[in-house]
């Protein structure tokens, strides 16, 4: 195994649920292994191609005696000592509780390598906790739902550098050398996107849009099977490839779809595969068939990608067979603006997966979208910007109450998320929020990327 991940946190946040999800059915109970207490479970975990050891410290639910806190502390410390990295879990629905602070303190004292995860993160109810969680001082929280499998792509993103570091070291070192990544004690360091890391792309779209043909064309060999016929099985869920010198990992959604033998199942399956790929991707390429663009299914997946906060590129395929290219392009752009207003400014590129024409522009659009998605604005810039926005168009005064906005800051990237401190945040009308989001989009040059804006009570 490459590295060991310990899941820690107070009871009931969802540690076992995540453990079970990561380990799947191949759960190894460790009662009989030396050095592991009855309260710690260990298993072989996996997300996509990342394999690691997981320790679950959730053995305390039944403990009701008053030594609970002491035992919880000792158990957590033990788990931390056994692990290369700790996934510290809080409950996004419950908010940050005093018990969570106790755990944060243990982790800080132990100088542990920490990934902060806000679980039960499905739905809007979790938004507030995500922001609160920054105050734990453990870096950027990732939002997950252990029960629904959401956020596994982000989790993979933060684990991959640790995995890579350990695999490399393990290859270089003697096999029994204990690999330690915790000397890198600034946890943020592993979150900074490095260029060596491949850019993660998912190509999604309806059956026969040309996904397999496109991926073949990019990876330059007939590694994937193409063709309209169903029933072809492939195992690979992703391929890593340099695309003109840029490392990319491309998630293939067509492959699993072709496992479907029953025709009626096709649409449903390809949607759920697309869903999975979207979660793992940084940039989602929505591949449309020029003959039948913007079908219901295309719109659904594009919308999903936006809601999941992915960078989106629209690629219109089979452009080689299009006769009236100019009129068609105009028509496509109008349809795009009308049907997917939430993706305003996202690039629309015409390609022919078959001939390879337009793929250079597609690549550029992908890289640019990725860059925009990683945009970071400084607090000073944002505050200057906010002052200008407020002057140009002051917030309304609903019911005579004056809404004052004082301070703006960026709380995360990928996609960019901002907090504006405001009085009466609940009274700010949607139109004013849109004005601010559009302002951020234009003034910080972030076309087409999902932008999150949170208004918080300045108290
Ligand atoms: P542990 O004590 O930390 O191991 O927590 P469990 O894994 O036993 O989960 C506690 C409760 O939270 C259970 O009822 C789970 O079904 C529920 N739960 C776990 N993950 C999620 C999630 O992502 N969303 C929601 N809504 N509930 C969850
Ligand atoms: P997938 O189901 O999305 O993976 O689609 P495939 O890659 O299997 O392609 C479906 C069909 O469309 C095949 O017959 C391809 O040859 C054809 N096709 C794919 N891309 C193009 C293109 O750029 N131009 C034309 N004319 N046909 C294409």
**In which range does the helix fraction lie?**
25-40%
- What is the string of SSEs from the N terminus onward? EHEEHEHEHEHEHEEHHEHEHEHHEEHE
What ligand molecules are bound, each kind once?
guanosine-5'-diphosphate
**Helical region count?**
13
Query: Structural class of the helices, strands and pairings?
Result: alpha/beta
Query: Could you give the distance between the termini?
Result: 48 Å
Q: Low-confidence runs (pLDDT<50, min 5 residues)?
A: 26-38, 60-64, 170-195, 222-236, 255-269
Order of strands in the sheet with most strands: 2-3-1-4-5-6
Number of strands: 15
- Rg over CA atoms, rounded to whole Å, is 24 Å
* Average pLDDT score: 78
Let me know the largest β-sheet.
6 strands, mixed
The proportion of strand residues reads 15-25%
**Shape, per Cα inertia axes:** globular
Pfam family, one: KH_dom-like
Organism: Yoonia ponticola
Protein name: GTPase Der
Domain EngA-type G: 3-167, 199-374
